[in-house]
Backbone:
């Protein structure tokens, strides 16, 4: 790494947590990368996060313990945080700062890019309208992911969002573009068990061959957690817009990222916002989420699935609340379904994909896709309402049609939502949907066209089960 400036700054005023305050350093630039050297000769990395006439504030990438104000010095390394990127990063594992952790040599960089990315010209954005198949029926049929979309997963503590993330990374594809599809996976605040899980899962399933992994551990500095998603998105943008890949970026867990933001804000003695989080958290999250999209004239694209665990399962908490404003829907992981042993426990009723209509239908998935999705939603909602009624009045008070809806809700959860680790094509998912809908009278399928009913009604679930189709 080439040193840009030999000048050293020796007037370190004080240290607060991971922050270093340096006087008479107003010529340092915001975002610059520096080295901090202590009296023993040990060097730590850092990044400038604030500059004023009085001082510069530096986030130290490692612990600040042992730094002595009298002997510490700061020197500039790069004008802005950069990542050396290369197509050879595919199949590799890195830490949160982009350093290899797979025992292989450092990547030979084709370019060194700012991790803050380049603003995407709104006029150059193309309309997202190409379906991404995740292999998960509830997502593909009812909350469809579209190439260039940002579609977060709202989960909770103890729910299997890590397993869901690994399954999506393993199965996702753009039909017809399998050869130029890549996954960039960034995990923040992982325990050692989670690091082992993701490492083994990607290697065991072969998903690593088309993936780039950035793994930030829980015992790594909080500052590193703030850089990890930017490292991942810089890699994704390079693969997408320089090499034409369709890149799916999975970021987990954004709650750990926001907690690091709050920790750094507290160390800077900032005035807190809602629940102690910085008032600029909306802007900070937007700087990550808005790096998804399709650019006119570029063959590649960046699609995002941010995953966050809602504290106390509270969807009004600032993290999911602000995420919902910025992104284009949400996939909700349900604690009740998980308690029943259903995997993946995705509840389609509070889930939503605002761009679904752009990428499904005739010539994209199947002509009956949207109507099947609407019919499943309505029938399942009716079945859940009837469950509440049965808890009060008993099943004897129901009509025969009501009992069919009650059984539909059970079958929908068991066979459609609860697919386990299977990889289903969109055709298979729609076939399972029709098999379950066929247990309702045709007169109840008011959201389906007569042509679709004549073509697909009557599919037998038992026959599919024996044929290992589900």
Residues:
């Amino acid at each position: 790494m080439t040193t840009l400036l030999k000048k050293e700054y020796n007037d370190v005023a004080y240290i607060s947590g991971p922050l270093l305050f340096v006087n008479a350093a107003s010529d340092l630039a915001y975002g610059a990368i520096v080295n901090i050297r202590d009296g023993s000769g040990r060097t730590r990395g850092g990044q400038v996060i604030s500059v004023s006439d009085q001082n510069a504030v530096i986030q130290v990438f490692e612990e600040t313990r042992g730094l002595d104000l009298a002997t510490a010095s700061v020197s500039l390394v790069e004008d802005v945080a950069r990542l050396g990127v290369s197509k050879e990063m595919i199949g590799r594992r890195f830490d949160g700062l982009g350093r290899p952790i797979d025992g292989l040599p450092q990547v030979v960089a084709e370019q060194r890019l700012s991790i803050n990315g380049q603003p995407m010209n709104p006029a150059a954005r193309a309309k997202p309208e190409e379906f991404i198949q995740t292999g998960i029926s509830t997502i593909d049929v009812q909350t469809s992911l579209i190439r260039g979309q940002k579609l977060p997963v709202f989960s909770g503590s103890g729910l299997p969002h890590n397993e869901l993330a690994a399954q999506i990374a393993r199965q996702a594809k753009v039909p017809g573009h399998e050869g130029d599809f890549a996954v960039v996976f960034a995990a923040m605040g992982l325990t050692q068990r989670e690091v082992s899980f993701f490492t083994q899962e990607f290697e065991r399933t072969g998903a690593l061959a088309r993936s780039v992994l950035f793994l930030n551990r829980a015992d790594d500095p909080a500052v590193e957690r703030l850089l990890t998603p930017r490292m991942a998105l810089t890699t994704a943008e390079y693969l997408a817009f320089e090499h034409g890949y369709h890149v799916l970026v999975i970021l987990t867990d954004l709650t750990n990222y926001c907690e690091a933001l709050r920790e750094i804000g507290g160390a800077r003695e900032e005035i807190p916002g809602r629940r102690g989080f910085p008032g600029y958290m909306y802007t900070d999250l937007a700087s990550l989420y808005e790096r998804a999209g399709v650019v006119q004239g570029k063959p590649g694209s960046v699609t995002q699935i941010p995953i966050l665990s809602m504290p106390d399962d509270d969807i009004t908490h600032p993290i999911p609340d602000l995420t919902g404003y910025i992104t284009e829907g949400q996939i909700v992981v349900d604690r009740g379904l998980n308690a029943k042993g259903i995997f993946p426990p995705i509840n389609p009723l509070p889930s939503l994909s605002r761009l679904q209509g752009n990428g499904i239908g005739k010539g994209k998935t199947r002509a009956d896709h949207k109507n099947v999705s609407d019919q499943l939603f309505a029938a399942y909602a009716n079945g859940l309402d009837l469950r509440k009624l049965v808890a009060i009045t008993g099943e004897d008070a129901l009509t025969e049609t009501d009992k069919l809806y009650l059984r539909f809700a059970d079958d929908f959860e068991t066979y459609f939502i609860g697919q386990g680790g299977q990889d289903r094509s969109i055709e298979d998912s729609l076939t399972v949907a029709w098999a379950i809908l066929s247990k309702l009278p045709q007169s109840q399928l008011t959201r389906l066209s007569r042509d679709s009913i004549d073509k697909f009604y009557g599919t037998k679930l038992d026959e599919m089960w024996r044929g290992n189709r589900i």
Observations:
- Residues 369-393 form the longest helix (25 residues).
